[in-house]
Amino acid sequence: MLNIESILADECGLQKSQPVVVGVSGGPDSLCLMELMRRAGYRLIVGCFNHQLRAEAAEEIEMVEKTAAQWNLICVAGSGDARAYADERKLSVEEAARLLRYRFLFDLARRYKAQAVAVGHTADDQVETILMHFLRGSGLAGLKGMSYRSIVKSFDSRIPITRPLLDARREETILFCSVNGLNPRYDSSNDSLNFQRNRIRHLLIPSLETYNVKFRDAVLRMSQALKGDYAFMTEQLEEAWKRTLISASDEVVTFDSSLLAAAPLGLQRNLMRHAMQTLHPEIDADYQTLKRASEFINAEDDSVKQMDLKSGLRLFRDANQIHVCALNAQLPIDRWPQMESESAILKLDDEIALSGGWKMVCERWNYPRLALKQAEENEDPFQVWLDAEDLSGDFEVRIRRAGDVFSPLGMEGHSQKISDFFINEKLPRRARDRWPLLCAGDEIIWAPGFRPAHSRRLKETTRRVVYFAVQRPLDAMPKEENLRP
């Protein structure tokens, strides 16, 4: 049966030196897998789970335990009420049973430090799974079907699930059991048309085979072809993720909105799916949800700041960023300079610490003409050269106060409230209250990240210059990121 040794080592990536948890139900597929892996010399931990859906399930578990004992294999049984879990979580009984079973198997894998969980999915299961995905309107990820080895983050981010029998037919596993003296149990629930998979197996596939007698082979060929396309798409997605992502945490995934909008539509939707599944691994990111997300990303009117996605996730537009947020998430603020206290004194040729590892530095410049040239060529809004003709040696760096006004460069000496200035510059609301402002006496002479005061601009007649910069530690600098809000 198959070249199982090659599949286990090359396709599933398994090593004989480490244990493997094998899920065994008592049916022919899982019994066949257990025996094949045992003969191949793998160290097995047998896991069997009772979903409490059938009276005979306890007898099947007992049979698995006896078979494992004959081969001196460790066998651990678990159980859970799949129907009650389905009612509690508003899931189908099928999905509830799957979740309970896999959580049990992965808990077992962690307990025994196993390298993987192995299950007995066959080529027939592959066809049925692809059709289930097709009926749900799945994209490429669903239509390619299952793989020999994959990581399911909702169960474990490190331990893979492997499917060594993915190219074997169900009839082959039944024959293998018969020839090798194994006595699988027949699961009567496989005949029930209450379950979608059974309706696909007993009704849909036979009907489709009247159109193409080799329908199953056609589906499997399609699966193989799409796997190559999916691998290419995954490479493109990884590159786009690195290019557009600003940060990612357990609660928020943040993208550069302009880079995200510049990506092709299909890539945008896949980036959104990946972000949603990063925050909520079990979420079904359906087409309509992804379509609404892409419309939000590409909207010409950016006055709409947020929209609901699914399962408590939402999109939030924030200056030049788009966040995918979990419910009640705190949006990131560490990429901006923020004051730790309400006020601090900055002396000439000194520095002060800001929050998050940021700092503000001050230096005296002795070459006014060079400073003027530097200022004219400068594109970094977090550094500035100011005319210091009537400035003393000490400066105050503080948060905004009620009644603050600012006369920014470019307004010819006209003033506006600092609150209005922040709004006009689209500084996110959550960053405004503790934004550092450089002051000389009562005058705001620089709003870091934006502009200096008009009165402090360098001129041909300037003789005294002071340089200021707001800096972030080099090891925390985002790649090629413009830090201006």
Summarize the structure in words.
By secondary structure, the chain is an alpha+beta fold. The chain folds into three domains: 205 residues, Rossmann fold (3-Layer(aba) Sandwich), CATH 3.40.50; 87 residues, Uridine Diphospho-n-acetylenolpyruvylglucosamine Reductase, domain 3; 134 residues, 3-Layer(bba) Sandwich (Phenylalanyl-tRNA Synthetase, Chain B, domain 3). It has 16 helices and 21 strands. The protein has a six-stranded mixed beta sheet, with helices on both faces. A five-stranded antiparallel beta sheet has the order 7-8-11-10-9. Strand 7 and strand 8 form a beta hairpin. The relative contact order is 0.08. The C terminus is likely disordered.
| Helix-and-strand structural type | alpha+beta
**Overall body shape:** elongated
Q: CATH superfamily of the largest domain, please? A: HUPs
Number of helices: 16
Biggest sheet architecture: 6 strands, mixed
- Give unreliable regions as ranges: 475-485
Helix content range of the residues, please? 25-40%
> End-to-end distance, in Å?
62 Å
CATH topology grouping of the largest domain: Rossmann fold
CATH architectural arrangement of the largest domain: 3-Layer(aba) Sandwich
Roughly what is the average pLDDT, rounded to an integer? 90
How many β-strand stretches?
21
In order across it, which strands form the biggest sheet? 3-2-1-4-6-5
Number of domains: 3
Radius of gyration: 31 Å
